[in-house]
Each structure stands twice: as structure tokens, then as C-alpha cells.
């Protein structure tokens, strides 16, 4: 089974070309990404996609994901969740996604804000994306493109630090060390490495050091969590 994820604007050409090229069949799923704001032309475009898929098989799901385009970080994290849940292996606990679904992401159409965030999410989780496509505005053709695979690993302590920061928004290195049960020197060393990756931000506060999770840190944590879950279910 396949799950297509694509931005949706007023045109459907790139989406129709996508499903014609890669096929659509019983049980497949299409997730269309749209801004929250009401737009009759986008509604008509979504209806056109529904009408087309209904002629193939009525079990094909066409879903509209309404997106708040004002917060890039929130969009990025939400798209990572969409990709991850859609790519859930057959051995994973039940989710809304078909078991073992292949995720095909279309990086074309729709507002630029959504397209950029979806591209970033797809690059962060390239190992969970089966295929990536792009509709050319120059020669009006759909092409399959290859996303770079970004290798990232975290040791146990670094991951514990990020998980702790996810729950404690304003904290210090000393407090993190106490909560995760590690020495302050170990936490300080690992946090310095994470700061080098821009995963955390460390600021002096008198004799203590404040530490906070960044957007890059949240993305890194999601990536490593998804990979850990995939290996556990593999």
C-alpha cells in the first residue's frame, strides 16, 4: 500500500501526474497539505482529487491536513510525524496508517511555506520516504528526485539530555545531571557536543549554565527516536 503526501494549491496537475505515474489502488491513501485559511479554489481542487480516486476505488482515502503556516518549526515537526506514522512497519502497533505503507512525498505545489517545511522534514527522514517527486514548472514534467541521507547518531547520555530538555523547558546543566543520574562533568561534555550540532543552546547564568532545546534538537531527537523504533520493530 502507498501513502502519498503532497501540498495542495489550486492546481491538481502535479498530483494527477503523481498518481498516474506511480499508480493508485485499493487501500491507498493521499494526504493533501493545505493552509488553515478557507479557500474555495483549493476546496474544488481537493474535490477533483476525490472524484478521480473514487472512480478507481472508493476505499482510497483522500485526507486534508490543515496547516498553520505561521510557525515553521511546528510545521516541520508535524510533517515529520506525518511521514513517520505513514511509514509505520507492519509489525508496529496499530496506527491510522496502513501496515507497511510506502510513503511517496511530492515536493510540488501549494504555498512555499508548506513546501519548504515538507522538504526539510523529508530530508530529515529520508530513510522513511520510499520515493520523492517534483513537478517541474519549467518543462511541466514530474520527476523522481533523490534526497540526501543525513546520518545522525546519539549516544545514550546525549539522548537522555535531549529527552530531559523536551520536558523541562527552562533548566540548568546541574538540574539535568541530577534528573538523568549522570555526573555534571559528563552532562557538560555531552551538552557541549550537542551545542556544536546546534541541538541545544547554552547560556551563562551567574555560576550556573542554562540549557535549552532548539528546533534542531527537536528534529534530531525525533529522527533518532524514529530510527530506534524502526530497529526495534525490524
TrEMBL record:
Leader sequence segment: none
Alphabetized SUPFAM superfamilies for the sequence: Winged helix' DNA-binding domain
UniProt domain Csa3 N-terminal: residue ranges: 2-127
InterPro entries reported in the protein's UniProt record: Csa3, Csa3_N, WH_DNA-bd_sf
Protein's UniProt name: Csa3 N-terminal domain-containing protein
Organism of derivation: Candidatus Methanogaster sp. ANME-2c ERB4
Phylogenetic classification of the source organism: Archaea, Methanobacteriati, Methanobacteriota, Stenosarchaea group, Methanomicrobia
Amino acid at each position: 500500500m502507498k501513502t502519498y503526501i503532497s501540498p495542495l494549491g489550486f492546481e491538481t496537475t502535479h498530483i494527477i501526474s503523481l498518481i498516474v505515474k506511480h499508480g493508485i489502488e485499493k487501500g491507498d491513501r493521499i494526504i493533501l497539505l493545505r493552509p488553515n485559511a478557507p479557500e474555495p479554489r483549493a476546496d474544488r481542487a481537493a474535490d477533483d482529487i476525490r472524484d478521480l480516486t473514487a472512480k478507481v476505488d472508493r476505499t482510497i482515502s483522500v485526507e486534508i491536513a490543515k496547516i498553520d503556516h505561521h510557525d515553521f518549526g511546528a510545521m516541520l515537526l508535524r510533517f515529520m510525524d506525518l511521514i513517520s506514522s505513514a511509514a509505520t512497519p507492519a509489525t508496529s502497533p496499530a496506527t491510522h496508517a496502513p501496515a507497511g505503507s510506502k510513503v511517496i512525498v511530492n515536493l510540488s505545489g501549494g504555498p512555499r511555506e508548506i513546501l519548504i517545511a515538507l522538504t526539510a522534514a523529508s530530508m530529515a527522514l529520508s530513510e522513511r520516504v520510499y520515493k520523492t517527486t517534483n513537478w517541474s514548472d519549467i518543462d511541466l514534467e514530474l520527476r523522481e528526485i533523490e534526497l540526501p541521507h543525513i546520518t545522525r547518531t546519539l549516544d545514550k547520555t546525549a539522548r537522555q539530555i535531549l529527552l530531559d530538555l523536551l520536558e523541562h523547558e527552562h533548566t540548568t546543566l546541574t538540574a539535568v545531571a541530577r534528573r538523568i543520574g549522570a555526573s555534571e562533568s559528563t552532562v557538560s561534555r555531552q551538552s557541549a557536543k550537542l551545542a556544536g550540532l546546534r541541538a541545544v543552546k547554552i547560556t551563562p547564568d551567574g555560576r550556573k549554565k542554562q540549557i535549552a532545546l532548539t528546533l534542531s534538537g527537536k528534529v534530531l531527537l525525533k529522527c533518532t527516536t524514529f530510527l530506534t523504533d524502526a530497529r526495534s520493530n525490524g
